Amino acid sequence: MTREDKLALAGDYVLGLLDDAERHDFxxxxxxxxxxxxxxxxxxxxxxxxxxxVTPAAYDPGLWARIEQRLGAVSAxxxxxxxxxxxxxxPAQRWLALxxxxxxxxxxxxxxxxxxxxxxxxxxxxxxxxQTDSSPAVIVEAFADDSLRLMPLEALAAPAGQVLQVxxxxxxxxxxxxxxxxxxxxxxxxxxxxxxxxxxxxLYEITLEPAPGSPTGKPTGPILVKGFAKAVSP
Amino acid sequence: MAPQDRDTAALIRxxxxxxxxxxxxxxxxxxxxxxxxxxxxxxRQDLAEEVVQDAFVAVWQRAGQFDMARxxxxxxxxxxxxxxxxxxxxxxxxxxxxxxxxxxxxGDRNADVTNAFDALAERDALKACLRGxxxxxxxxxxxxxxxxxxxxxxxxxLNAPLGTVKAWIRRGTIALQECLS
Lengths: 234, 181
Known about the structure:
The structure holds 2 protein chains of 2 kinds.
Chain A: H1 3-15, H2 20-32, H3 34-51, H4 63-73, H5 84-88, H6 91-115, E1 124-130, E2 136-142, E3 147-152, E4 162-169, E5 177-182, E6 188-191, E7 203-210, E8 223-231
Antiparallel strand pairs in A: 1-2, 1-8, 2-3, 3-6, 4-5, 4-7, 7-8
Helix pairs in contact in A: 1-3, 2-3
Chain B: H1 3-16, H2 20-42, H3 45-62, H4 73-90, H5 92-95, H6 99-119, H7 125-132, H8 135-147, H9 151-158, H10 162-180
């Protein structure tokens, strides 16, 4: 390998252009080739001046609490995960299941909402803000039984061929989980998949997706409204 | 060593000893900067926060591996965040954009690159050496480093053939390192 080849390889490494296998090879090679290791270290430290040009960003006040919560679980072997069956459902099947749950919600949700038993208190509430002008747009109440109540504060509808898809992020490992799709945001109750108890600080969002729902099972479209949950005091 | 970096190194040693308050101090001092670095790459506030969340859990687990002889504390922390952000970006299922959004996202990336370059200190040799490269090579290198694009994405952004972009980046990074040394 010529000196130029090494410089180019060190450049690719620092620029983040190597894939996992190539990066692993590079690190193996750099462990014995001090010239290559020094090239990468020197360039890396120089380029970091670009990272230091950022203006520190605001972040969700619940971020530290979420980290703290994970520290205790780091050594614990049992990380809560979704039931695999929910995630491997074929898109068509998922759509049918979600459509069914929306229909059930429409049929029963209003009735349940009118009765308002004391046990109906949500675990967390999130106010989702319109991402265009940060105005409150939808209130989400998440219940211990994995169900969810949506209360739109402003009109929110999907154009033809697209749907509104509701998501939550229970934790970083699990990633975003779909809670259901709908055409027009309206006061209704959704039955979500089996998830850990909703937590304060948990993210809820609605994105615009191609009908009948995100093709990847993860958010792909623009975020319309988004917010972080607050715990409801008993 | 800058005083600030000495503080960071001292915090990392305390974290390695299992002191959770030291991790909280490091978070308070660095989270805003790290969220902003991650956001240049993943483009979404929630994903950037997720990156920083993962990074601090990794710092908690790996603080014992930090070796000052191999680089500064600030660089170690920044590298953890950059690698997490790049991994998330490469996991395409999370970040597939609609066509309409792709253009907007690329536009933002160009603006971030220009801002990052302009904000470099005039006395920084990196700025002089980057300025010494021609515009296309400089922009290709900055799009990769600052915003995490790969060869193909840079080619699409700069509307140039893939082979040309690869050659720009190869010749550009060689020239940059020779200028800096």
